Amino acid sequence: MLRDKLNNHRLILASGSPRRHQFFKDMELDYEVRIKSVEEVYPSNLKGAEISDYLAKLKASAFKDELLPKEILITSDTVVWHKNESLAKAIDSAEAEEMLRKLSGDWHQVISSVCFTTIERQIVQHSITEVKFKNISTSEIRHYIDKYKPYDKAGAYGIQEWIGLIGIEEIKGSYTSVVGLPTQLVYDTLLQLIT
Fold first, then answer.
1. Which of 47, 80, 91, 83 is nearest to 163 (CA)?
2. Tens-digit pLDDT string for the chain (195 aa)
3. Counting Cβ atoms within 10 Å, is residue 118 exposed (0-12), middle (13-18) or buried (19+)?
4. Residue 162 and residue 159: Cα distance in Å, rounded?
5. d(CA 99, CA 119)
6. Strand blocks (E) in 58-167
């Protein structure tokens, strides 16, 4: 199992997300958390996966020259991409409502990039999942925002929350990637890194 193969390595998860922490626990991986504040700004010409790849690498750059042999740093970023536009985290309820109105009744992409960094190498992978919302009513949108306050989530929603349970009609790709971490991709890339 991967956990046994990682016995001589130290996994460092650079994320404060409780969802990502839980995924690592559920994959039975031992890890430690190290968090550094990074201003998530990217060049305006980037699109889709280019944005999340760039930001995942940017987060890793904050740890430059700090990694020790046998340490594997994992940084990640998730982007909601809809009609050639990135829907980032909403700053308030009005912006969250605007985002959810855009996503209502339509398909969008959720792109999660993961950057694996050691002192010898760096690998960036991403997972693209297609998600389709039903036509969500204004009252449903407002109920969700008022109760769940989804301001820490790209696209202003969490698929694992109420809005996902009542609003998502179809999904093509990795469910865990939409939650925030493509677990199968992480597992296989870690195997690749240590063999």
1. 80
2. 898 889 899 999 999 999 999 999 999 999 999 999 999 999 999 999 999 999 999 999 999 889 999 999 999 999 999 999 999 899 999 999 999 999 999 999 999 999 999 999 999 999 999 999 999 999 999 999 999 999 999 999 999 999 999 999 999 999 999 998 999 999 999 999 988
3. middle
4. 8
5. 39
6. 71-82, 85-87, 107-117, 122-133
Q: Phi/psi class of residue 167: alpha, beta or left (left: φ > 0; alpha: ψ in -120 to 50)? A: alpha
DSSP H stretches of helix in 62-137: 93-103
Among 87, 86, 42, 78, CA closest to 61: 42
Q: Which residues are catalytic?
A: 77
Q: Give the pair of three-digit tokens for residue 37.
A: 């504040």
Q: What CA–CA distance (Å, rounded) separates 131 from 22?
A: 22
For residue 157, the 8-state DSSP code is -
φ/ψ region of 125 (left if φ > 0, alpha if ψ in -120 to 50, else beta) reads beta
- Read off the tokens for 154: 């790209």
Beta-carbon contacts of 94 under 8 Å, excluding residues fewer than 6 positions away, are none
Q: Which two structure tokens, joined as six digits, stand for 58? A: 């940017």
